[in-house]
Give the backbone structure.
Amino acid sequence: MLAALGGCAAPAPAPIAVETPVTGKPLDAIVGVYTEIPEGARSTEFLGTRRQGSGVLIDDHGLILTIGYLVMEADQAAVVGPSGDIIKASVVAYDPETGFGLLRAEGPVGAKPLRLGSSAGLAEGQRVLAVSFSGSRPVVVATVVSRRTFAGYWEYLLENAIFTVPVQSEFGGAALIDETGSLIGIGSLIVNDARQTEQPVFGNMFVPVDVLKPILEDMVASGRGRTPPAPWLGIYTEQAEGRVFITRIADGGPAQAAGLKPGDIIIGVDGHRVRDMTDFLRKVRLQGSAGANIPLDVLPTGAGSLDIARVVVTSGDRHDWLK
């Protein structure tokens, strides 16, 4: 799965195998999600062609909410409900801005949907349940340890993300449930900075369902949210010592066309210095939506001087780049 900012390990894709589901009526809405991605898709190099995780039934018509990287570029999908039966499913939506994905089961799931709650009042120290469909510990009693912005190396920016400990190892698409039994988040990552201290604290990052509610109807109707997409550069970055540097360039993406290379250090955006990855992504988004020209101030890799180069990248829409 996607690695977290700061060095999360990325496990190799595992063979798809249906495991024993979580039991208990309140948790029957948590289902197994299994997808197949065709060879040659953009995301297979790092996410593989066979993916599995969890999802949550959220309506009476088979609509299942999960994390987007499970369904990204998928051409086949299935879910497994509480009975253990494999149910064919179709991909409804993938939204790069929030990171959510939607599936529609094409047969009865055999469960009541989980109610969408709100994480607006979720505070540090609050107890929650992190629930996956399968695994050695499908139900983890967790504690919220942080609410803050998360910046992902793949140009992903999520405000007010939810960080919990201890780790739910089967995090992909896992349900975060509050004390009222409502769904308040969907599992995305294992991170090593769940609590920001000098020593690593491993935990999970969950995407709050609050960012789903304004775009849910649009996702069902058109396959993604209809808000203007953020400008996508086609770069993968890391940060160190207050510097943002490029680690990889997306093949066929805008940055490649502009001549950027791995090892280039991004000093600023349009003459304004960037402090870290969060600051960098926010400054890029201030330039406009997808299609905007993004002026980057770059110290090129291997340069013989400390002269800063201005590189203008005509941004694109990540959704259009995917196959």
